[in-house]
Amino acid sequence: MFVTVVAVVLLAPAEPPKAEAKELSAAAKKEVDKLQGKWKLVKGSRAGKEYEHTEGTPELIVEFKGRTWLLNGVEKAEIVALDPSSDPKCLDLKSLEQPRGANTVDEGIFKLDGDTLTICWYQGADKNRPTSFDIPKDKDTILGVLKRVPADPKK
User: Fold this and answer.
1) Which of 23, 47, 93, 152 has its CA 20 to 30 A from that of 131?
2) How many other CB atoms are found less than 10 A from the CB of residue 20?
């Protein structure tokens, strides 16, 4: 169930971005640098339900490569804005997915605590940035808790 709910939202075919993202501030670039690499989704919430990854179900790996957000190796979104001075920190992700509408911008918040990344974003039709990391009650807000995947020492 966990994989199905998250995969339905995130695993659609991607298309290249239609417009260039604006330059990020130096502070925002530092935050993006901290996010680089692969992250394993260990827990997710949506519509008042919480799902945990269980042994035997496919892993969902999020990767930040520059400003691009990939899911299981497929480009899904691009970071187009990030405010590291807000509490919680804010980021905007521009969808690269055709079914959702390329250039659709999802508003989100995130916190990074060591090797744990918690991110919450809104994928509804309106602008409605989440304000907390509580379990979302609505179907358009997704909360994910990810653990950093150690870098491959052979690379």
Assistant:
1) 23
2) 8
DSSP sequence for 96-123: -BTTT-TT-EEEEEEEEETTEEEEEEE-
Rounded to two decimals, the pTM is 0.81
DSSP H or E stretch at residue 3 = helix 2-10
Sorted by sequence, the CB contacts under 8 Å of residue 138 that are 6+ apart come out as 47, 124
β-strand partners of 70: 63, 75
Helix (H) / strand (E) element for 6: namely helix 2-10
**Phi, psi (degrees; rounded to nearest 5) at 99:** -60, -30
